[in-house]
Amino acid sequence: MKPWLTLAVAAVVPLAAAAALGCAPTVSRPAEYAERPISAEAGADYFLRTGGGDPYATGMAYPLFLALMESYPEELGRDWNELADKFGLIRDPEAKGDPKAPPIGFHLTTDPNTGVPWVVANCQLCHADRVRLATGDLIVPGLGNKRVRPHAYQNALARIGSHPGLDAGRLSAVATRRAREWRVPWNKGDAIVKATLDVWSPAMKAAKPHLARYDAALPGRMATIESFALALAAHTKRPIPMPDAIGWAKVPDVRSFPFRETFSYDGSGYGSPQALVLEADFLFGARPEWYREHMHIATSMYLYLKSFTRKLPFPGRIDVERVARGRSAFEASCAHCHGYYVDHGDEKRVSYRERVVPMEIIGTDPVRAAAVTPAFVDAANAYELVRGHTRVRNTGGYVPPVLLDVWARGVLGHAGQWPSLEVLATPPAERPRRFVVDTEGLYDLQRVGVRYEALPEGPVRPLRNGEYVYDGATPGLGVEGHPFLSDLPPDERGAVIEYLKTI
Predict the structure, then answer these.
(1) Cα 144 from Cα 252, distance rounded (Å)
(2) What is the mean pLDDT of residues 336-341?
(3) Residue 347 has what pLDDT?
(4) pTM for this one?
């Protein structure tokens, strides 16, 4: 288990529901996860549609999940649309508002042992975003979802799983009715519900006190290192002490991955890239035996991410004259960390060498990097499963990102601490430290980022749908550091931003 980015954030429901199904095997091997030729095309299918698999461990029988939505609507929402809105997921535009259609990031797979569909998740649950423009919304695969609330989803499931009124018989009756209404196969339904609750309920009761720590998670953020520590402790049966301050990390854009050797904000996890790509699946329940049997998934996913590309041109006005000056200033002051970008026909070629900028130079909030404690490093490197494949280290700094499509990535920074490029270009002492972020408003093409409103001290006005308060005084969310762009003369700062719109 290692602390890189959550490339395959699954449904966060670690179940082994087939364990009590008589002679049924405890691993479900649906057809779409069977061994196939290794390729980037296969990796795209895993990333965009099916996810990493292991349905019994990372998913839930679909009729039972429908029953949970009906029985606990205040926690999950009454249908898929309410669930999507509650947890910042993206409704599938092709569904045209159908409440029976799962949002982007969920996949229904047929369990060959029972014939029952299982709901699992794919990488787009977190790694796809909706960019709102005056001309219409763009759904962008690979872009970090700025609205998703994985900790809130996880905690809702923990509250349900530990609820004293959770009853297998009642849930089985609701699941049977919903399966009939939605025309979903539901063979051995009573056995599946009982087996699920036998495993899930004790796990959620044990996890609930730990998960409550993450109730304060902002949209689009994960407590990545702390979550890995909890998962690792569950495997090794040894608790890992963590600092009081949580190392929040923004869900990243995968656009940089073709140019990276490591995948995290600080380069702390390193080693076999195939292992790095899918190790996050273990955080969400995938079992070692599944991973060993399905190494083709990890390799194909790596090939897809290594070749990841997309066309995402800036949708607003660009001042061509300022672009030339901005490029010169960028290459003189920024490119040695963030790379050089050259047009070659319709292709953007990148010259970039991954490096870690020490904390004393970059000056950004240190809490995320400090979360990789000696205790965590020792525990992660001692874990038998990953020996010889990957390792963890505290690098003492952060890796400058490749900036392709940076215009669409707001909020910016490893913790999402800067709402726009304009804020990043502002001297650190003058940046807004407490502000309202509007995730439902049109993307701000003038400031190049999300819309925000600086807040004075005192009570916060009533928030509208899609808004939340960002407070830079919270440990792990500081807005300081990276003064390099703001150190340029004001006109050059604006010219660099103009250039960044073009890459």
Answers:
(1) 5
(2) 98
(3) 86
(4) 0.92
Q: Is the pLDDT of residue 9 over 50?
A: no
> Is 63 within 8 Å of 184 (Cβ atoms)?
yes
Query: Over the stretch 369-404, which tens digit does the pLDDT of each residue have?
Result: 999 999 999 999 998 878 888 999 999 999 999 999
Which amino acid belongs to residue 428? P
3-state secondary structure 175-231: HHHHHHHHCCCCCCHHHHHHHHHHHHHHHHHHHHHHHHHHCCCCCCEECHHHHHHHH
Q: For every residue of 329-349, which 3-state class applies, written as one string?
A: HHHHHCHHHHCEEEEECCEEE
Lowest mean pLDDT among 25-29, 43-47, 277-281: 277-281
How far apart, in whole angstroms, are the C-alpha atoms of residue 149 and residue 248? Answer: 13
Is residue 475 classed as helix, strand or coil in its secondary structure? coil
| Vertex 417: Cα angle to 154 and 305 (nearest 5) | 65
Distance CA 135, CA 156 (A): 35
The rounded distance, in Å, linking the Cα atoms of 32 and 376 is 35
- Which token pair is 300? 């194909």
Helix or strand holding residue 85 (H, E): helix 80-86
Q: What is the DSSP letter of 393?
A: -
- CA–CA separation, 359 and 276 (whole Å): 24
The per-residue pLDDT for 210 is 84
Would you call 314 helix, strand, or coil by DSSP?
Answer: coil
Residue 412 per-residue DSSP state: B
The type of residue at 465 is N
State the Cα–Cα distance between residues 477 and 277, nearest whole angstrom: 26
d(CA 415, CA 266): 12
Residues in the chain: 503
Give the model's confidence band at 25: pLDDT under 50 very low, under 70 low, under 90 confident, else very high. Answer: low
pLDDT for residue 23 is more than 70 = no
pLDDT bin (cut points 50, 70, 90) of residue 16 is very low
Tokens matching residue 389: 């494949």
| Mean pLDDT (the chain, rounded) | 92
d(CA 392, CA 386): 10
Omega into 469 within 30° of 0, i.e. cis?
no
- Candidates 1, 16, 28, 305; CA nearest to 142 is 305
- Helix (H/G/I), strand (E/B), else coil: 367: helix
Q: With b meaning 16 or more CB within 10 Å and e meaning fewer, what string describes 325-347?
A: bbbebbbebbbebbbebeeeeee
Cα within 13 Å of Cα(424), Cβ side: 28
How far apart, in whole angstroms, are the C-alpha atoms of residue 373 and residue 247? 11
pLDDT for residue 236: 84
The phi and psi torsions of 41 (rounded to 5 degrees) equal: -65, -40
30, 112 Cβ separation under 8 angstroms: yes
